[in-house]
Amino acid sequence: MPGKFVKALKTIGRKWFIFLIVIILIVFFFNPIAAIIITIITIVLFGISYVPTLIFSKKLNKFLSNINVIEDKAVARRLKRPLAQVQEKMYKLSKNQNKKEWLITFYNGHYSFYNEKVIKKFKAYYNKGLGEKEILEQLKNIEINTRAEIKAIEEALVNNDRLKGRKVSVKEYRDKKRYS
């Protein structure tokens, strides 16, 4: 018996909007003013339900603007939010980053945020002709620790058409470095 009751509650929870409209229509036939009041209250409550999402979005954007490099787990810990919510928001931000100065990458099952300062340095080293290993050595002080991160940054920049061809190839740079 309790199992059927729980299933019924879940069904109502999934289809609450349809039930609400039916209730409003029934009330409308008996008392139109009450139905209008219920509708206004519903619209206000529905609008208020988006406020926490908007506040979180603003808080996340403000938080990320002050940090060079951070992963989704650290963001979730610092903002005291569920990891799934942070990952969902970072996923949405990563899909709309063509004209942004910062970059969000996805590798090894998590998202990483890179500030515009890091991306500018990466582009400068990339255009100088440095390979992944050399770029990693240069960016170690900014908390970039693996070549996978470098590769993910490069792929994300290429996919968003934010990385132009190298001015000096890696081979030319290494030959120049070797013979000078």
Q: Spell the H/E element sequence.
A: HHHHEHHEEHHHH
**Termini separation:** 83 Å
Number of helices: 10
Largest sheet: 3 strands, antiparallel
Mean pLDDT: 83
- In total, the number of strands is 3
Roughly how many Å is the radius of gyration? 25 Å
Question: SS-based structural class?
Answer: mainly alpha
Shape: elongated
The percent range for strand residues is 5-15%
Order of strands across the widest beta sheet? Answer: 1-3-2
Give the domain tally.
2
Ranges with pLDDT <50 over ≥5 residues? none
- Proportion of residues in helical segments: 55-70%
Précis, in short:
Helix content is 69%, strand content 7%. With 180 residues, the chain is mainly alpha-helical.
Present the secondary structure layout.
Elements: H1 2-14, H2 16-30, H3 32-48, H4 51-65, E1 69-71, H5 72-79, H6 83-95, E2 103-107, E3 110-114, H7 116-128, H8 132-139, H9 147-159, H10 170-179
Antiparallel strand pairs: 1-3, 2-3
